[in-house]
Design goal:
The structure holds two protein chains of two kinds. Chain A has four helices and nine strands. By secondary structure, chain A is of the alpha+beta class. In chain A, a hairpin with a 3-residue loop joins strand 6 and strand 7. Chain B folds into two domains: 110 residues, Aspartate Aminotransferase, domain 1; 259 residues, Aspartate Aminotransferase, domain 2, CATH 3.40.640.10. Helices cover 35% and strands 14% of the residues of chain B. Chain B starts with 7 loop residues before the first helix and ends with a helix.
């Protein structure tokens, strides 16, 4: 499974790509497979402040709904409008066109609390992700 | 489905299997004081004895069929075509539940889908759910939607909304951090615009009106949707659903949610239930809508089929973050509403509404002509209105009971300031002769 090196990962299967204090957030390849066909994304609200680990968005598949948690504390600064008409992008391109929202991160140094690609791959392999 | 309780040996077998000696042993974690008092029940009776007991008890009741009833105030006596009873008596439909198994429930699902379609058309809004228990709980769910959607803490509700419905909303929110405020009505009985403006603020999640309101007045809601939406609040409208066939519907008034009592659509007054709560909303709020939704789709062979849809909103999937934990609906009552609207048709619905207006207007003229009685003749009404009497209402009630007439509902019970005022209703079931008889009896009070 593909876990890009330039991203950091959470135990709840979100990724974050941090540039300065702006972080793009999505779900991992592993997560999109587990979720299966995404039919709806409840978009995050711009300007909404979220604490680390708190629900910021909801992804729905045919049979279930999943909370998407903020990898770091911050304020939602943007969301992926394209998901409104094409939620399947989360499945097709989870690290690219299927991103969910952008976070203005309060404390970028907190990035170190998240897993690297290698650590996340190990986490998945150990089965701890379930 | 037959209900066969466990036999003694089966119970003992089950208890043995899980390693406890008795039922008391199984529930011993519950303090004995909480396990309920000893019940002192009478000896069992034979079937003919029970039948006689129930018949004698039933004979103590008086029904709307034995009396000439002008009661309204939330429950309305309308004519129900026999065909409605015929349809809902079919055994396949006899359930209060929405079906999980589409492969075994196409008929019920289609009936619910059609009920939803009819309600959407009647209310002028995009999407209906499969129904709620009754008008009060449906309106309370609408209040919850507004609170969640706007993330604000206050519900603003007109005092001219049914008192029971307001009470249920208060009960729903009693243990939450949200609050309910009310705005008043004018001397004429319509809502008070100044009172509304004074209380509509940045905390307001939703504003609830009823039209026709509890006093029977058709509210003039001109400009209200703009005012409420400019405040970024939701507009929730309730009201007698058949009136929407004649007056402006919630959708035409710009409402975000229509929620209220569906009993007038083919359900008898009964003893206050079972009734039906309608809940209809806009496309934008579709995913906020509580309850079940039946949808039309295609089966594996490409044939039209029905199933429950958008279930990810619901508690069996979303657990604690579900929009509502109410997921059963009133499937049988929704079927009655569906059959009622279908048999009446668009034209029939309008004619029934016109007849209501006609009879109530005639009754109002009659009462206006009785010395000492006062009615506000200039107010737009649907099928009921307020009467101010020269004598205490209890006296009128007692006198008219001797004539086998129910004169109406005292308002003082709900509005202490409205002394000697009562609510009178005349639906299409009242003939001009009935109304004349009532007016004559009233004149003697």
């Amino acid at each position: 499974m593909n876990f890009p090196e330039n991203l950091r990962y959470t135990r709840t299967h979100e990724w974050i790509a941090l540039t300065g204090n702006k972080g793009k957030v999505g779900v991992t390849e592993y997560a999109q497979k587990e979720i299966s066909d995404v039919v709806f994304v409840e978009l995050a609200r711009k300007g909404h402040a979220v604490a680390q680990g708190k629900a910021a968005s909801v992804v729905e598949s045919v049979k279930a709904a999943f909370d998407i948690y903020a990898p770091l504390a911050g304020v939602i600064s943007d969301f992926n409008q394209a998901l409104e008409s094409n939620p399947g992008l989360v499945n097709q391109d989870p690290y690219g066109a299927g991103w969910l929202f952008e976070l203005e991160v309060t404390d970028p140094s907190a990035l170190n609390t998240l897993m690297t690609a290698a650590q996340y791959a190990e986490f998945i392999q150990s089965g701890a992700g379930h | 489905m037959p209900y066969i309780p466990l036999t003694g040996p089966e119970k003992r077998g089950l208890l043995r299997e899980i390693g406890v000696s008795s039922l008391d042993d199984l529930i011993r974690a519950i303090p004995s004081a909480l396990r309920g008092p000893e019940m002192s029940l009478p000896e069992g009776m034979s079937e003919p004895e029970v039948q006689r007991l129930v018949r004698d008890l039933g004979a103590l009741n008086t029904s709307g069929l034995d009396f000439l009833s002008f009661l309204g105030a939330g429950s309305y006596d309308h004519f129900i075509p026999s065909a409605v009873q015929e349809v809902i008596s079919r055994q396949e439909f006899s359930t209060a539940y929405t079906p999980y198994q589409p492969e075994a429930s196409q008929g019920t699902l289609q009936a619910i889908f059609e009920y939803q379609s009819l309600m959407a058309e009647l209310t002028g809004l995009a999407a209906s759910n499969a129904s709620h228990y009754d008008g009060a709980t449906s309106l309370a769910e609408a209040a919850l939607v507004a609170l969640r959607h706007t993330e604000r803490p206050k519900i603003l509700i007109a005092r001219s909304v049914h008192p029971h419905h307001r009470e249920v909303i208060r009960t729903y929110l009693a243990e939450s951090t949200c609050r309910v405020e009310e705005f008043g009505f004018t001397a004429g009985g319509g809502f008070d615009r100044q009172s509304l403006a004074a209380k509509l603020d940045a905390d307001t999640a939703g504003v609830i009106f009823q039209t026709p309101n509890f006093f029977g007045i058709v509210e003039d809601l001109a400009g209200i949707a703009d005012q409420v939406h400019a405040n970024k609040s939701l507009l929730i409208l309730s009201g007698h659903p058949a009136s929407f066939a004649l007056f402006r519907s919630p959708g035409e008034w710009g409402a975000d949610i229509a929620a209220g009592e569906g009993q007038p659509l083919g359900m008898p007054v009964s003893f206050g239930g079972p009734y039906l709560g309608y809940f209809v909303t806009t496309q934008a709020l579709l995913r906020r809508m509580p309850g079940r939704i039946a949808g039309a789709t295609e089966d594996a062979d490409g044939k039209r089929a029905f199933c429950l849809t958008l279930q990810a909103r619901e508690q069996h999937i979303r657990r604690e973050r579900a929009g509502s934990n109410i997921c059963s609906n009133q499937a049988l009552c929704a079927l009655a509403a569906c059959a009622y609207m279908t048999f009446l048709g668009r034209q029939g619905m309008r004619e029934v509404a016109e007849l209501n207006l006609d009879r109530a207007t005639y009754l109002r003229e009659k009462i206006a002509g009785i010395k000492g009685f006062e009615v506000a003749v200039s107010q737009p009404i649907f099928n009921e209105f307020v009467v101010k009497s020269p004598v205490p209402f209890a006296q009128i009630e007692k006198k008219l009971a001797a004539e086998r007439i129910f004169p109406g509902v005292a308002l003082e019970t709900y509005y202490p300031e409205l002394r000697n005022r009562f609510l009178v209703c005349a639906t299409e079931t009242k003939t001009r002769e009935d109304i004349d008889r009532f007016a004559e009896a009233l004149a003697k009070c």
